[in-house]
Specification:
By secondary structure, the chain is an alpha+beta fold. About 20% of the residues lie in helices and about 30% in strands. It has two helices and five strands, in the order H-E-E-E-H-E-E. The N terminus is likely disordered.
Length: about 100
């Protein structure tokens, strides 16, 4: 399994929600060819990360893969990340406990 990440840990931490700096808004694409993260900025200046993972969206496999990839990218333990909203949808809010 190859993993390509387009962002550094510092960049990901810099772009957290300014009103709630411990939250990260993401959109997940399961069943991707490779695992990677892309940053997208909306017209209103909001930042959303598109996370592509190879895992299938069944039995929590995709959610576990998202947490694993984010933890590796940010250089923090998986236990510091939790899905707050979107357990069964592609759009998720991740809480970062630092």
């Amino acid at each position: 399994m190859s993993t390509s990440v387009k962002l550094g840990a510092a960049q990901a931490l810099l772009d957290l929600d300014q009103k709630q700096p411990n939250l990260l808004h993401i959109k997940v694409t399961p069943n991707a060819k490779s695992e990677r993260i892309k940053k997208e900025v909306g017209e209103d200046g909001s930042v959303i990360y598109k996370i592509y993972i190879t895992a299938t969206p069944e039995d929590g496999k995709a959610n576990a893969a998202v947490i694993k990839l984010l933890a590796k990218t940010m250089g923090i333990a998986k236990s510091k990340l939790a899905i707050m909203h979107g357990h069964k949808t592609r759009e998720k809010t991740i809480k970062i406990n630092i």
